[in-house]
TrEMBL record:
<dbReference type="InterPro" id="IPR029044">
    <property type="entry name" value="Nucleotide-diphossugar_trans"/>
</dbReference>
<keyword id="KW-0812">Transmembrane</keyword>
<protein>
    <recommendedName>
        <fullName>Glycosyltransferase family 92 protein</fullName>
    </recommendedName>
</protein>
<feature type="region of interest" description="Disordered">
    <location>
        <begin position="84"/>
        <end position="114"/>
    </location>
</feature>
<feature type="compositionally biased region" description="Low complexity">
    <location>
        <begin position="87"/>
        <end position="102"/>
    </location>
</feature>
<dbReference type="Pfam" id="PF13704">
    <property type="entry name" value="Glyco_tranf_2_4"/>
</dbReference>
<dbReference type="GO" id="GO:0016757">
    <property type="term" value="F:glycosyltransferase activity"/>
</dbReference>
<dbReference type="GO" id="GO:0016020">
    <property type="term" value="C:membrane"/>
</dbReference>
<keyword id="KW-0472">Membrane</keyword>
<dbReference type="GO" id="GO:0005737">
    <property type="term" value="C:cytoplasm"/>
</dbReference>
<keyword id="KW-1133">Transmembrane helix</keyword>
């Protein structure tokens, strides 16, 4: 009866319905289930059995260029105070957090050596440095080495600054820990840096066991579990060790155009190791075995003693495979373009002023992110 209805005078011919349904199915198949001819069909990659699938490399994370320190602060979030604790931070106990030195916007800071890690009250290690017209650089240098390295004596050999560095009002640390000696233009020698190193030892050898010969743009960092005193004590009784050579970690300009508020917070881009500037470093000398400067980088030792690296191995002036597992020397060789121009203008204590070719050589090796110095406060 149903088919009679479809084929009746008042019904719809069943052949017509069949054709309509078939047409709709074909249209659906053409429009939905197949791709248009002009649409690219993705090629299925061939999988070779047993072959390892190599993922695309993650883009390197570098310190982007920034013209102001505020841009760096925004990039790092170091002073914003808006960071939320992650699971690792949440696992820290209240006792651990309270024993650390916390700075603005920082969750956990490296502690003051003066509070719990400084194992000596005497001036076991000192710093001797030739400086000229670096009034703006010294406060942070003093602050870092006094509070975080436990160094309590700084000999500032002022190579004709105008005004003299001794007239600085705020040194960042108690003034009694800094000794100034001024040299006028008539007292300047061709190799002034080596000259003042010898003077420091002649005048103050009996006051200290060790003396570091570094510059105002070089910052020591203890990268292992020891503090500086403990590290040096491990070599104190070894009569074959006359000095320890600390390898550079050279920092680029990080794209800054003008002077930032903090060297350690701003310059977070370093150069790679290899046949570049990181092959060199500076020396911390055992004064009982000091026999004069070899270069500004190393000293001569007497009684057959040698200069060793952090591992106790004899260190050449150029270490092509530098290590920094116990101690490092961060060399802020360029800083911003503004500061580098000041460096070029004032010259240096070895009558060999830097030029813009040196800038290019450092910038050409840059691209290694280095954030460890941003962890220090103050």
């Amino acid at each position: 009866m149903f088919f009679n209805f479809l084929s009746g005078a008042h019904g719809v011919p069943w052949k017509f319905l069949f054709l309509c349904i078939s047409a709709l199915i074909m249209i659906h198949y053409m429009l939905v289930d197949i791709q248009l001819n002009d649409e690219a069909i993705p090629e299925t990659p061939k999988v070779v059995e047993g072959a390892a699938i190599i993922p695309n490399p993650t883009p390197p994370k570098h310190a982007g260029s920034a013209g102001t320190f505020d841009e760096f602060k925004a990039m790092l979030g170091i002073f914003s105070g808006t960071e939320t604790s992650n699971s690792e931070d949440a696992s820290l106990s209240e006792d651990t957090t309270s024993s650390e030195t916390l700075g603005p916007g920082h969750r956990l800071k490296k502690p003051f050596l003066g509070s719990k890690q400084d194992t000596r009250d005497d001036e076991y290690v000192s710093v001797c440095m030739a400086v000229k017209d670096q009034q703006k650089d010294l406060p942070e240098f003093f602050t870092h080495h006094y509070y975080h390295l436990g160094i309590k004596r700084f000999y500032i050999m002022d190579d004709g600054s105008d005004p003299p560095l001794s007239e600085m009002e705020d040194l960042g640390i108690p003034r009694e820990h800094v000794t100034f000696q001024y040299f006028n233009k008539t007292e300047h020698t061709r190799y002034m840096q080596e000259h003042v190193y010898k003077l420091c030892v002649e005048k103050y050898r009996s006051n200290h066991t060790w003396m570091a010969f570094i510059d105002a743009d070089e910052y020591l960092e203890m990268t292992g579990k020891e503090n500086l005193n403990e590290f040096l004590e491990s070599y104190e009784e070894d009569e074959h060790v006359g000095a320890v050579y600390v390898s550079w970690m050279t920092h680029s300009s990080a794209g800054l155009l003008s002077r930032p508020k903090s060297v350690r917070q701003a310059y977070i881009d370093c150069i790679w190791d290899g046949e570049g500037h990181n092959v060199q470093g500076k020396t911390i000398a055992k004064l009982s075995l000091y026999d004069g400067p070899n270069t500004v980088h190393q000293v001569r030792c007497k009684d057959g003693a040698i200069v060793v690296d952090e591992n106790g191995i004899k260190a050449p002036v150029r270490r092509y495979s530098p290590t920094r597992n116990r101690i490092a020397l961060h060399h802020y060789a360029l800083k911003s373009r503004e500061e580098y121009q000041e460096k070029v203008d004032r010259g240096n204590a070895m009558s060999d002023p830097k030029n813009w070719g040196f800038w290019d050589s450092v910038e050409g090796m840059a691209g290694i992110e280095c954030l460890s110095m941003t962890e220090y406060y103050p």
